[in-house]
Amino acid sequence: MPKVKANNITLNYEQQGSGEPLILIPFLSADNACYAFQVAEYAKHFTCFSVDLRGTGESDKPEGDYSTELFADDVAEFMQAIGIPKAHVSGLSLGAATGMWLAARYPDKVKSLSLHSGWTKTDPFIKTVVEGWQVMAKALGSVSEMVILGIFPWCFTPELYAARPEYIQSLADFARSRPAQPLASFLQHSNAVIAHDVEAQLGKITAPTQITFGRHDQVTSTRFADRMTSNLRGSELVIFEGSSHAPIYEQVDEFNQKTLAFLQRHAG
């Protein structure tokens, strides 16, 4: 996989497909492969750049404080380094938080913005949930095992666990197969989640925006929908009725269809 120097670190990424550039920003604990079920469809219409954020995958993992603003700066520098003046930008959860900062700080770089399971400012509930994940990660000494035991139940509905246990197991196997995130890097990333606050910057975002939530998501629930749609001009809202925090895995076909339709409307 190619690597590039950006913002004084080396970032790893995967490039697939052809067409206008589409930057895919991963979620907490994940590397560039997390959108595998989407890239297969998106790459038929767009050149997909799936990035390992600092502290994940095969990108550098420097010490120090991380923030969603810093991740956005990294992505902006990444785009400059590989010669992309403007791109469609998509992310889920931490990826959405980063995407909001990117579109606010660098509006000329973002052609369209796709925000899935996002939130504008961490509230006491999110802080409590993420601090619980931090405790579990330290106790287990393994980020991937914490993800499977601690984060998965927040990402998927009880109905999915009951109906498709073998699918949950395949996702667990997939998580274990990816480059292991060091505990220190997970703590840096999760602290960035806890500190996230882009609320005052939303008015700077000019790109057409799609906002999506899973109906049964509790972490970044539809409680954030109004403050996002009311502050993002020309945004559109989609609710995935059968999903929790990760419709990218729970309602793959519907998610791909509705998000790709948005991207194609704003291409060209």
Overview of the molecule:
This protein is of the alpha/beta class and 268 residues long. The protein contains eleven helices and eight strands. It has helices at 36-42, 68-81, 94-105, 124-140, 143-155, 158-163, 165-177, 183-195, 225-229, 247-250, 252-265, and strands at 3-6, 9-16, 20-25, 46-51, 87-92, 110-116, 209-214, 236-240. It has an eight-stranded mixed β-sheet, with helices on both faces. Helix 2 (68-81) packs across helix 3. The mean pLDDT is 98.
What is the strand and helix layout of this fold?
Elements: E1 3-6, E2 9-16, E3 20-25, H1 36-42, E4 46-51, H2 68-81, E5 87-92, H3 94-105, E6 110-116, H4 124-140, H5 143-155, H6 158-163, H7 165-177, H8 183-195, E7 209-214, H9 225-229, E8 236-240, H10 247-250, H11 252-265
Parallel strand pairs: 3-4, 3-5, 5-6, 6-7, 7-8
Antiparallel strand pairs: 1-2, 2-4
CATH homology group:
Alpha/Beta hydrolase fold, catalytic domain
Report the top-level CATH class.
Alpha Beta
Structural class: alpha/beta
Helix content: 40-55%
- CATH architecture type: 3-Layer(aba) Sandwich
Written as H for each helix and E for each strand, in order along the chain, the element string is EEEHEHEHEHHHHHEHEHH
- The N- to C-terminal Cα distance equals 28 Å
In the CATH hierarchy, the third-tier topology is known as: Rossmann fold
Strand order of the largest sheet: 1-2-4-3-5-6-7-8
Largest sheet: 8 strands, mixed
Instruction: Label the overall shape.
Output: globular
Question: Using DSSP, what is the number of strands?
Answer: 8
Report strand %: 15-25%
* Mean pLDDT level: 98
- DSSP helical segment count: 11
Domain tally: 1
